[in-house]
Design goal:
single chain, mainly alpha, 56% helix
Amino acid sequence: MEQPVAPAPSRLEPSWSSYTWPPPAVTVARPSFWTAYGRHLLLFALTAASVFWTGWVPNSSVAEGAQLVVAALGIMVSHEMGHYVACRYYGLDATLPFFLPAPILNPLVGTFGAVIRIRSPFPHRRALFDVGIAGPIAGFVVCLPVLVLGTLEAKIIAIDPSSHGLSLGEPLLFRFVVSLFRDVPEGQTLLIGPLGTAAWFGLFLTGLNLIPIGQLDGGHVTYALFRERAELLARVAWWLCVGLIFFVGPSWVLWAVLVRLLGIRHPQTLNDDAPIGRGRIAVGVLGLAIFVLCFLPNPFVQSWSQFLEAAGEGIGWLRQYFGI
């Protein structure tokens, strides 16, 4: 005998008995304290310790280490929170900043900066523009008073060709502020302290982030303003970075490679056709002015011959140390 089988319901006529109204609420697991806050706090503490160590070591000065921490982290926090607050305004899913300690790899400041992760797609180009430009403007505003104080703090010393100190390039804004507040005679230079170092680093990061490539802040702003022309501008900017390797020095090798790995193209927003508004075009011009004032073609004054000479000395030291 065979048990009779009821005919299967048609795919065009769903069985409403399987549905309930109202639909059951979907529960989303809340992230743990470690995921939401703990790792960010730990990285912030490690970065603060790394920056303090970098400022304290040269002169064994607790005060200089503390000044570098307050100034450098103040600029970085302002930059990243500019992004974060803009993300919250548009309801985007974004993490708190991840700070990056680097006491050995960056002996100047002791950090590589900070990043936030945006997990939501951008709804339109207005949100993309606001999130992209908010960080550089916020960091730049905080950097200005630090720069003035750092210029007043700096000491005027004679230029010593035999000195092994690190020579830094000067962005246009740094030169302008120095000309306003200090009179540096010919044959002398400024020896910056912790506040000047933090201001220089803040300007350096702002200029790098505003390069109009891919997922950098400048890439966000460029895509929001120019859309289909953004990729062409990004490729031109990347090739200029490559050109700086040969015409300026080796300090651009790492950055050119990193930018290429991050990607040159910028993804579309969910609604690219939504208008961006004339007001944001004016703010974009302001962002371009900040980029010009902060950008450093040669951040670390070192030619290829000096780089190869230093590399040779390093290799010789390693051979001597390991007895090779």
